[in-house]
Each structure stands twice: as C-alpha cells, then as structure tokens.
Amino acid sequence: MGSTDPGGVRPAVPVENVVCALRRLAPGAALRLLSPELGVLASALRECSPSELAVRCPSEVARVVLAAQLRALDRTMTGLFGPEVLRPEVARLVRASRYSGRWRGALLDRLRAEPGLRAAALGWAEAVGGRLLFDELRGVPPAPDGEDGRRAAELVVVALLPRPEAGEGGREVLAPRFEAGSGFLDVRSVRVGESGFRVDVRADPPVELGRDGANLTLRALWWNGLGRVSDDLGHEYLILAKDPDGTGLVRHWCHPRPAPGARVLRLESAGYRGERLRLDPAAPGTSAEVLVKRELTVRLGA
Q1: 290 Cβ contact list (under 8 Å, min separation 6)
Q2: E-strand stretches of 232-284
Q3: Furthest-apart CA pair in the chain: how many Å?
Q4: At what angle do helices 88-99 and 115-128 cross, to 10 degrees?
Q5: What is the pLDDT of residues 262-283, one digit of tens each?
Q6: Phi/psi of residue 165, each to 5°?
Q7: Tens of pLDDT along 183-230?
C-alpha cells in the first residue's frame, strides 16, 4: 500500500521536472519561504532525486507526509468535499466523526483516544493508500519508502513555488511571423508579465469515431500540456499551472520572466493521454499515457 495525500495539491508537472528546473532556474525567481522541516528537504533535493529523499531524510519525510495525510483525513471527516463521501470508507469515517465527542487538540491524539473513530480512520487510510497514517494508528514505527519521498518532494515544491500571475495583461514577445508547430501543436502566444510569462499553445489532437466490428467506438487523444521549459542560455523555468483540458488553446503560467539575453525558448511536450470508449453497446472505457516527446522551439522578439 503506497502513501498518498488524497485531494492534496500537486505540481502542474511531474515533481522530477520541477526539481531539475530548480537546479537550473533562470535569474529573477521569487520563491516562497519554507518551514524549517521543508527547508531541510529542499536542501537535500539539490543533490538527490525525489525517490531518494526517504533514504536521505527519513524522519523529515515521515513527518511531512504523515502531516499531509492527517490534513486529508481532517478534510474528509467533514463530509463536505464532493462525491467521495458516497464511498463506504468515507461514509463510515464521517459518521464516526459526527457521533464522537467534541475534542480540542491534535487530531492524532483524538484518534488515539476514541476507538470507534480510530477504527474508521484505519479503514479510510487503508482504502486510500495512506500507509504512514495507517502504520501510525497501529503503533508501527514509520518507514518511509521511495513513494513517500516523492510525495514529500511534491509538498516541498508546492510550498516553494509562487502563485501564477493573474490577469490578461503582459507584453507579447513571440517573434512576428514566427510559427512553432509540431504534430497537433502550435504556439500562438508568449506574453511576459511582471513576474513571469504565459505560453498559449493550440492543441488539436485527433478524435476518431468508427466501427470496431459490430461496435461503435470513440478513440481520442488529449494533450498533457508542456512538461519543461528552457532557453538557449541553459536556464529552465517553472511551470506553475496549466489549463487541464488538453485541447483547444492551452495556457501555461511560467516563472520567472525570460532571462536577459535569451532569444529562444524550448518547450517540451509532456505527451498525450489516449482514451478508447465503446459507445454501442456502452461499456467502460480504457485509457493510457502516450509518452511522445515533442519539443517546440519559439524565437523571442523585442
């Protein structure tokens, strides 16, 4: 059973890409301050990969990931967060929380003091993959693994990265009459704001409706957006957020602004997600990641 933070915020791109970008980050970045515990992990990530973090800093990884799982548990106990409340383990947890007595203090102390709530929390943790919380509630010493290290790295970068710049303003810097196309992708705009820049890419992946024997089947590709952004000087840029739809005009918010002297941006695609759905007769669909590495090159104007 792996460790996760159900419902938790995650980076817009794989955490390994963010760590690489932080090591070669363009000048002018304004990163947020970290707590001492997250700061220890951030320092370790300068030299090790996210999956190695649990070996380098096991106690910090265990505390950070356990705290995230407790936050997720606390949110779930309210029963106010979407259709997941219909899942049996969530419903049991919400009922146990509502029928337990009032408690002031740490959630972990409450779970240890109330057997019924603790049993419901154990069921929830096992069902959603909260391994460190599951072990903690059973009195088993924490033993973080590579997946926990990767989750801890995600928590570090989410806390570290600045918020995307709001608004529609900024200065267009895509070179005139420059078209960057690759397969189903076209870069339409690169607009620089006060603290970063936005990249708009037109994604037009194919959709096919056809017969598969006697069945009517829909096949489609959805773009995963950009995975890395770098320039011709060797700098990398953080992708803070991106539109989730994977089709149409897909916007990416990047940080910091293009480095002085940079004339070219290299935009690496994160690949596609393929889906196949049988419509007649209806049946559950299937999906798979299609890791097609495409790089778009755009020239910056004045």
Answers
A1: 221, 271, 272, 273, 274
A2: 236-242, 248-255, 264-269, 272-280
A3: 68
A4: 160
A5: 999 999 988 777 776 666 565 5
A6: -70, 130
A7: 678 888 999 999 999 999 988 876 776 666 767 776 777 788 899 999
* Structural contact between residues 9 and 158, judged by C-beta atoms closer than 8 angstroms: yes
Instruction: In whole angstroms, give the CA distance from residue 94 to residue 100.
Output: 10
For helices 36-44 and 58-77, angle between their N-to-C axes, nearest 10 degrees: 130
Long-range contacts of 130-138 (CB under 8 A, 24+ apart): 130/3, 130/4, 130/5, 130/6, 130/69, 130/72, 130/73, 131/1, 131/2, 131/3, 132/3, 132/62, 132/65, 132/66, 132/69, 133/66, 133/69, 133/70, 133/73, 134/1, 136/66, 136/108, 137/111, 137/112
For the residues of 29-69, what is the DSSP string, one character each?
Answer: --PPP--HHHHHHHHHTTTS-GGGHHHHSHHHHHHHHHHHH
Structure tokens at 58: 């096991």
